[in-house]
Design goal:
homodimer; alpha+beta; Arc Repressor Mutant, subunit A; Beta-Lactamase; Enolase-like, domain 1; 3 domains; 5-stranded antiparallel beta sheet; 3-stranded antiparallel beta sheet; DNA-binding
DNA sequence: TGTTAGCACTCAACTATAAAGAGTGCTAAC
DNA sequence: GTTAGCACTCTTTATAGTTGAGTGCTAACA
């Protein structure tokens, strides 16, 4: 048995759509006039009264119109929202093809997303979690410093300086490089266990201390990505929405964007909860980040195969244009999925 | 002949200090009471009238107190400000020692600076401009991709992927690496001219196309730093100052911080104008960035020897605590100077 | 029984007006 | 040259009145 009959649903839909447009509380008269229900405002009023009792809408104050409650938004997102037919977006495609470094791609994506939606966009590099070492190289940079370069399957490049007591000769360096690569290539962070390490050190002989350093560097590189890189764009867009732009709230929000740590919570949350479509909508209090309880957050997970995942997110006011946002995220997600797929082949 | 006699100077000083504290226009009575001049408010009023005529202070409206004009601030910064005796700041020292990657150091610095001052801090990596190649390495990452790693004198590491038609064998790679290093090491961007390039390509023989790619990568790396990395922190601090936090201004400012491009202007300006102390103060319209005409900007240049310079800056309201800010910048500048000096040895 | 017209009521938002307070400029006296 | 005093200005705050959008309820209607 449904809680809402068809008419109530229609009215709720009308209220929410109107509110998304205007940002103003919407009254019975408006609905009566601008919907195809052909009901008088009085009737609408009765229905609205019911809807309020059921918790889908609320009044900011007596004698104001109604605005959607979180429950209302939720209902809208789950049941009322029209799926847009995916449009072509050649531009983005082009962009991905023509920039090679992943960072750049991601930064650009964030920018485009923010510009398209007028909300704030965030995007993370695919998590190293189960990423594998693809290539590893030690080089003598000067008398006392070695440079370790680590390339992973996803073509993420990390480098780390290692200080040494004295320079290694070329031959030793070459041997070490071969050793490291044969031992570690194709392994993920978890797969490099004590056994691997012991074997490696044994083979390295007197240079085992360098191996240690390399492993530390490796761990460091992986670690560094645990508290992972988050690119944001359009953070100032939130100032465009009066309900978010009072000094207090804006400051908290902007801080969350600057202190990217907080965003990590969001990312983890998103990665944890598996959704088939890969799109998630957090409305108000549902958001994993406390500071964002007055916002809605929409996230998507893109995949690079084998458990390597990244997150894209849009943060905006509760009355955000969910359809547009979801649509944007979906296209982008697909694009990332396929592009990275292509690169792997 | 001085424009301001001693008494006027004292009064101006009192006005500015008071305004820096309170942010409110200051009236004659306040000065009369809280200064050691022992003059009646009427006398102060006469003097203030003179000061206004001379352009050092101004009235927001009739029957309000006076606030310092840009000229007033300028006079204050140039003549009235007390130099604080440099304090010890072990904490920062510690931090620099314990982080190895320059990026990290700079990010941290920015954070500390913002936290200390309650304004917005920005800091740039030392400009590549005349930086030299210290080490260069090509590695075969997979069948079709070469990784070029470039390390510069300042231990900045850049990497770039190069796509190749087919894999190179180890020997060729080794030869190329030696060739590249012997030819390019120690050269700065300007020193790598057509002559160098021609010679290099000739020596590379059939692999001259790869040399081209490497040079492109090199140019790219140098280029990438032309529009250089700027780290900001405490951007939301500007919201703490009512005179800057109205939606309009705040948005513009925050945008400037997000779109780091604009900050580059500031950096270049700073680098261009040589000051012996290395500290510069831009008040209001003096700022090279249009958006910051309601702010003051204080910048410092730190040096890494041989023309490699970076910039540190603080952006805040005109009524910022100049003494504190200048002091902070000075210490930090010195610290960076010496630390980097140490690293080079 | 569901729908509607009509009306009294509420409350935010706006406007006008008054009063208070801070500060100035000027004049005249010290 | 300095100061007391006073009229004047202009912002800020408070108060009250007005408007208008919107509701809830009742009674009439189909």
């Amino acid at each position: 048995m449904r809680e809402l009959d068809e008419r109530k649903t229609k009215i709720l839909n009308a209220i929410i759509r109107n509110y998304l447009d205007t940002g103003e509380p919407v009254g019975s008269r408006t609905i009566s006039k601008y919907s195809d229900l052909n009901l008088s405002s009085a009737t609408i009023r009765n229905e609205m009264s019911d809807l309020e009792e059921l918790g889908y809408i609320l009044q900011p104050h007596t004698s104001a119109g109604r605005i959607p409650s979180d429950k209302g938004y939720r209902f809208y997102v789950d049941n009322l929202m029209k799926e847009k037919d995916q449009e072509v977006t050649e531009m983005k495609e082009f962009m991905i093809e023509h920039t090679e470094r992943m960072e750049q791609v991601l930064k650009q994506m964030a920018k485009v997303l923010a510009a398209n939606t007028n909300y704030t966009a965030m995007i993370t590099a695919p998590s190293y979690q189960r990423n594998k070492v693809k290539f590893l190289q030690l080089s003598q940079v000067d008398e006392e410093q070695l440079l370790a370069v680590i390339v992973t399957e996803g073509n993420l490049v990390k480098n780390k300086m290692i200080s040494t007591r004295e320079a290694l000769d070329n031959e030793t360096l070459l041997k070490l490089n071969i050793l490291l690569n044969t031992s570690l290539n194709g392994l993920s962070a978890e797969q490099i266990n004590l056994g691997t390490i012991a074997r490696l050190k044994e083979q390295a002989g007197i240079h085992s201390n360098i191996v240690s350093d390399v492993l530390d560097a490796l761990a460091g590189a992986f670690q560094e990505d645990e508290d992972l890189e988050v690119y944001t764009s359009g953070t100032t867009n939130i100032l465009k929405y009066p309900e978010l732009s009072d000094s207090q709230k804006a400051s908290e929000l902007l801080n969350a964007f600057e202190e990217k740590k907080q965003l990590v919570t969001l990312v983890n949350e998103t990665l944890a909860s598996q959704e088939q479509t890969g799109i998630q909508v957090y409305i108000g209090d549902e958001s994993p980040i406390q500071n964002m309880k007055d916002c809605s957050v929409v996230t998507a997970t893109y995949q690079l195969g084998e458990g390597m995942k990244g997150t894209i997110g849009i943060i905006g006011p509760k009355r955000m244009d969910y359809e547009n946002v979801v649509d944007n995220l979906k296209t982008l997600k697909n694009q990332l999925d396929t592009v990275f797929q292509k690169k792997r082949e």
